[in-house]
């Protein structure tokens, strides 16, 4: 009896010990899971903050199923099918409709600015690519050749034949690298500029090309490791921006009119105009003042063509010399008002440099109207003004020598280190850099469907928008079929919680589909409930999609959705399906 009693005690003790061990393990893994889910141990503090700001509990009651994809759902909701638009809309650009543009005033190029349709006029359908559309050639071949079927317009080959913009050869367009101001090629022209502007040592990295044509200047700047953002209006040269984008050169439809350029202040190292037909001296120098706003202190402005050196060229330009003389006088006066230093005038080229600080501008101060806005980066849909944007007051910005790109690539920007951007510290910037380095490495690692070989490294025109970009209504900033890939992080969660946004999720996704090439890719990174909603919508848009776990493990609510737009073109009547 005693033996049986001792055995029972041992069994009881063993049971209690097992219960304590199991309870301890459960508690440990619960705490570990909560810690991992928070992201604090994985360098995802920024993602956590975005999640906090956008967690409006829209889909709290959804039931998930584990399957081949992370976060698969079966809630019985039917996928909405988006039909193709009519073939006549292959070049549809919502906010740059030519017929609508002609109803607006021509003063100050207002009719060439963005005029978006009301909701009742939007096309809730998929814009087709031209029949036979071909994937662009890999870079750098795409700089020189574009398949004719991708942009089947020959007018520029006739109008600009003697200027070597573009030539039609068989089934391709060839771009010899010429321009109105450099008919013998962009290389020689760029090298002439580089004799004054430090392009060869990485000092100049970013450039803005106003009135870019087919963007050959920007295309050939890649040789100097300089990246140009090119823009031009959608005018009689209807396809010029389309050609630029098919070549793989970053470009947007845009114009210097009455609205500020959509770039923050001090964004570019260099700005350029080659016969861009912008009246620089008009409106009290307002357009030059806008260029001054987006130029870094110490940045360069290049103007080539009329009216530079008008004394020797007025007959060739077939313009009255008095008119050209007055035009250049106004430009020189505005440049002096802005305290720019003229570095060179040779032939038809003039180069000015913006001063690095206000020390050189004291005598001009009484003559200048200083902009009243305290935030020169607040530019979305804001009217352009004939006023001078003041230099930043911090020593870190005004007195610092320019660093080569290789050094400033990983350096903290002075506007952040100086504390001039509210809510953004050096620590958050460095954390964000580490986070994105980790994300990009993860994209390469989990890319099992050939996404990297098809997109990354093939074309330089990839787009990473941000929330402020979407709040401003992104329709028609780009031409049709302009991008090979898009990257989105945390944006749609913002839209779920936003009661004042002008765009809903379907609008954004339809616009993404419009500007994305056939077989182009989109990578979404967001909370799983948001990505499930995105996946359902794109399932009706002829996109293939696959969701994968966060690189830090399946316990994090943030997931990644890889999508690829299926190949289809005008004239096909394939049904929309998700594969």
Q: Please indicate the percent range of residues in DSSP E strands (runs of 2 or more).
A: 15-25%
> Biggest β-sheet, characterized?
7 strands, mixed
* Order of neighbouring strands in the sheet with most strands: 8-7-6-9-10-12-11
Mean pLDDT: 80
Categorize the overall geometry: globular
Query: Counting H and I runs of at least 4 residues, what is the number of helices?
Result: 20
The helix/strand class is alpha/beta
Helix content: 25-40%
GO molecular function: methyltransferase activity
Subcellular location: Endomembrane system; Golgi apparatus membrane; Membrane
Pfam family, one: Methyltransf_29
Enzyme class: transferase
What features would you describe in this structure?
The strands form four sheets. The protein has a seven-stranded mixed beta sheet. Helix 10 packs across helix 11. Helices cover 32% and strands 16% of the residues. Strand 7, helix 8 and strand 8 form a beta-alpha-beta unit. The chain is α/β, with parallel strands linked by helices and 579 residues long. The protein contains 20 helices and 17 strands. The radius of gyration is 28 Å and the shape is globular. InterPro entries: Put_SAM_MeTrfase (IPR004159). Its main location: membrane.
């Amino acid at each position: 009896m005693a033996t049986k009693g001792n055995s029972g005690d041992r069994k009881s003790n063993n049971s209690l010990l097992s219960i304590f061990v199991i309870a301890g393990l459960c508690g440990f893994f619960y705490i570990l899971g909560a810690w991992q889910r928070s992201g604090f141990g994985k360098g995802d503090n920024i993602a956590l903050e975005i999640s906090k700001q956008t967690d409006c509990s829209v889909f709290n009651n959804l039931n998930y199923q584990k399957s081949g994809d992370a976060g698969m759902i079966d809630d019985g909701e039917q996928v909405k099918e988006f039909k193709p638009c009519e073939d006549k809309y292959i070049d549809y650009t919502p906010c740059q409709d030519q017929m609508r543009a002609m109803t607006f005033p021509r003063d100050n190029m207002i009719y060439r600015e963005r005029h978006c349709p009301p909701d009742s006029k939007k096309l809730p359908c998929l814009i087709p690519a031209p029949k036979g559309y071909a994937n662009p050639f890999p870079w750098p071949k795409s700089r020189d050749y574009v398949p004719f079927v991708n942009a089947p317009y020959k007018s520029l080959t006739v109008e600009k034949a003697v200027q070597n913009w573009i030539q039609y050869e068989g089934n391709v367009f060839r771009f010899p690298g010429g321009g109105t101001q450099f008919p013998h090629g962009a290389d020689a022209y760029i090298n002439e500029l580089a004799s004054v502007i430090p392009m060869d040592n990485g000092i100049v990295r970013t450039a803005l090309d106003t009135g870019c044509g087919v963007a050959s200047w920007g295309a050939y700047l890649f040789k100097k490791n300089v990246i140009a953002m090119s823009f031009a209006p959608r005018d009689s040269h209807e396809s010029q921006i389309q050609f630029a984008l098919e070549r793989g050169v970053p470009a947007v439809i845009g114009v210097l009119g009455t609205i500020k350029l959509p770039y923050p202040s001090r964004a570019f190292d260099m700005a350029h105009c080659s016969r861009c037909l912008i009246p620089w001296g008009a409106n009290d120098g307002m357009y030059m003042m806008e260029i001054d706003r987006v130029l870094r202190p110490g940045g360069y402005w290049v103007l080539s063509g009329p009216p530079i050196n008008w004394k020797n060229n007025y007959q060739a330009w077939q313009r009255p010399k008095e008119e050209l003389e007055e035009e250049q006088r106004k430009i020189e006066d505005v440049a002096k008002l802005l305290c720019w230093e003229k570095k060179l005038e040779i032939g038809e080229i003039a180069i000015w440099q913006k001063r690095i600080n206000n020390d050189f501008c004291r005598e001009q101060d009484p003559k200048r109207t200083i902009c009243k806005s305290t935030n020169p980066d607040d530019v979305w849909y804001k009217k352009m003004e004939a006023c001078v944007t003041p230099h930043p007051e911090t020593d870190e910005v005004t007195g610092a020598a320019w660093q080569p790109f290789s050094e400033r690539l990983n350096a903290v920007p002075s506007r952040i280190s100086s504390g001039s951007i509210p809510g953004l510290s050096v620590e958050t910037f460095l954390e964000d850099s580490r986070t994105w380095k980790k994300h990009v490495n993860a994209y390469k690692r989990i890319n099992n469907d050939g996404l990297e070989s098809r997109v990354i490294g093939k074309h330089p025109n990839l787009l990473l928008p941000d929330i402020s970009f979407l709040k401003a209504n992104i329709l028609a900033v780009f031409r049709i079929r302009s991008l090979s890939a898009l990257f989105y992080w945390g944006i749609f969660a913002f839209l779920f919680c936003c009661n004042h946004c002008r765009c809903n999720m379907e609008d954004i996704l339809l616009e993404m589909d419009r500007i994305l090439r056939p077989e182009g890719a989109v990578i979404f990174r967001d909370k799983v409930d948001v990505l499930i909603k995105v996946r359902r919508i794109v399932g009706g848009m002829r996109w293939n999609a696959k969701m994968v776990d966060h690189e830090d493990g399946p316990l994090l609510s943030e997931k990644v959705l890889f999508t690829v737009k299926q190949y289809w073109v005008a004239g096909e009547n394939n049904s929309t399906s998700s594969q």
